[in-house]
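Before a colleague's protein record goes any further, I have to sign it off. My question to you is simply how this chain folds and whether the C-alpha cells agree. I do not need a full report, just your reasoning and any doubts. This is what I was given:
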Amino acid sequence: MSLQDITERIRKAEADAGREPGSVRLVAISKQQPAARVEAVLEAGHRLFGENRVQEAAGKWPGYRERFEDVELLLVGPLQTNKARQAFGLFQGIHSLDRPRLARTLARLAQEEGHCPDLFIQVNTGEEPQKAGVLPAGADGFVTDCIAMDLPVRGLMCIPPPMKRPVCISPCWRRSPRATGLPACRWA
C-alpha cells in the first residue's frame, strides 16, 4: 500500500469519526527497515518517523536530516536512563516515559540543555508483567509528579492487551484529565 493510499484512508477515518482533517498523524516506524525503504518514504514527502532504539536512530537519522528538511523523529521504544542524553539530541518526542528515575533524569537534562522533547507517559493498561509502563492505579500520580518537574507531558502512550474493539481502560484517562491537563480519551 502506498503512502498516498494510507493517507487517504486516514482522512476518510477522520471524516467518519467527525474529527478535524489532519488531526491524525501517521508515524512511520522505521526500525529495522532497509535504507531504501525509509528513503522512499522520505522522498514521497513523509516527515514523521518512529524508532525504538536510540543506537539505531543515531546511526541513520543524522544523515537523513542532512538530506531531508523538517524530519520529526519519535522514540517509541524503551529508553535506558544512560541513553537519555543522546536521546535529547535525536528525538523530538519520547513515547516511553515509564518510571520515576527516568523522569528525574529527563528533568535534570531539560534544565541543563534548556529544552526537552515532548513526552508521553507509557501506561501498562493491561497490567501485563511482560510489558513496561506505569500501572493504571499509579498513572495519575506519576503524571502529576512529571508535570511538577516541569516536564512537557503531552499525553499517554498505552498498548492494551489484544482485544476485538479497543476500549478506554486507563482510569487516569476517564477520571482526571482536568487534574493533569491531558485531554480526555476519545475512541473513534
Notes: The beta strands are 28-29, 48-51, 72-75, 93-97, 118-123, 153-158. DSSP finds eight helices and six strands in the chain.
